[in-house]
Amino acid sequence: MATIYTESNLRLAQGNEKYRATIIAAASKYTLTPQSIAAMIGAEATSDPDGTWRADSNEDHPKKAQGLAQFFPDAWTAVFKYPPSLLCQDCKSMSEEEWMSKRLEAKYAIDGAGAYAALNLRQFASDSGWDVESLAPEDKAKLAYMLHHEGVRGTTRLLMGRPDQYTAEQAAERLAKQLKSVEKANQLVLQHHGKAVEAYKSWFFSYIDTKIDVNFFTVQDKQEFAKPPRNMAEIVEGLGGGTRPAHPQPRPEPAASNGKPASSSTAMSRAVSATGSAWFDPLEICTLRTAHLKSKGAAEFGMTRNLGTRAHQGIDLAAEPGTPIRAVANGIVYMAPVTANSDYAYGNTLVLEVGINDLPPAQAKIFKTVNPGRETIGFFYAHLSEFQYPIDRDSQGNILPVTVHAGDPIGKTGCTGNAKGMNNILLGAHLHFEVRQEAKKRCIGLANRVDPLPFIVICTNH
Q: Which end of the chain is more exposed for a tag (fewer CB within 10 A), N or C?
């Protein structure tokens, strides 16, 4: 039984075991890995609550995307015309209605997913001149998903600016459509200094990295997961495109007249007058943690632990140790390192105190709702491995705060405190992120805390 359920090192939900042989065959045929094929199907398929993929998805709507791989008619037609595909080989003599219905048959859908990936990768390699064949299979899976999503022409437009570059208006429109919110799209564009094309590219790369999780379909082994797979930006940059999304660069730290970091409300006002209010999510990619939890809901805020009997005071965002964390807004950072033998559950922490006038309208509106009557709010980061700034102390030994700007790197994630041993995402590595009504006040339970998720612009799985 162990051999059957781990064949080709492929991890599947029990209800998807019936697809194992077909996935392995398609992977071999199209020079991918079974994990890559499974990841592409997993990104598209409609699933039952137990994780079983539904081969009959949209059965009554032939003009919509159907089946395991969610093929639209045009894409399925391309598969039908591709000679190596099982659909082309078996269904040449059928009517269009008959072979179009094969989208709902698992063996054709799975083989079609591999065929369509191979077809798009070959066409993109020809159009771009990039050495796609040099990519590792898991990298090919991510690029293939991008091609499936944008089409070959759309991908070359986005990555290479040809045959014509996306305009700012087109990119902003696509971003708003994907996020289902003009307001969120505008915030993301603001984070990229008004560059809508870079904002769309950054969102899209993050989306692909979340959707195509090859590790999830690999039988877990600590050695296998010692090194995480490359992200989409690294893949594209490695191909020679030089198209890594542009992320805002940190600005110089403002200082008081005595040369020490400023630590008063006037320092915050000075930062605002110089840069304006802005918001940056705490991580470049925010994804609720699922590893070593019963469900994603256990990573959310509220009475979400121990079957609803224990409070979770913030949200857990999946992050490999050493991932940079960012100041969500202009404010003052108060750092709290722990000693080597400390049993403090949060480990190394910092809190960023932010004034209401330092937040853009969307977050300021939330602030007023959850923190009425106050002028400041706190954003708390836990389990850190290091701080961006040196620990300076005053004459009484108190750690001096540091004034920062929105988007500045302020530290790195880690596995300190009760996150000890969580040294990669699959073992539960994460940033614990809270919003505290009074920034520096410590309380038990949910007192002094509010849900951080409404403040986040983009959480990939919420």
A: N
The answer to whether 187 and 279 have CB atoms below 8 angstroms apart is yes
- Specify the pLDDT at position 6: 67
The residue count for the chain = 462
Provide the CA 129 distance to its chain's centre, in angstroms: 29
CATH code at position 128: 1.10.530
- Residue of 282, 299, 275, 440 whose CA lies nearest to 363: 282
263 pLDDT exceeds 60? no
Q: Which long-range contacts (CB under 8 A, 24 or more apart) does 120-127 make?
A: 120/144, 120/147, 120/148, 120/152, 121/147, 123/152, 124/152, 124/155, 124/156, 127/152, 127/156
Q: State pLDDT tens for residues 367-426.
A: 999 999 999 999 999 999 999 999 999 889 999 999 999 989 999 999 999 999 998 888
Q: Is 131 within a domain?
A: yes
CATH of the domain at 345: 2.70.70.10
Q: What is the pLDDT of residue 221?
A: 56
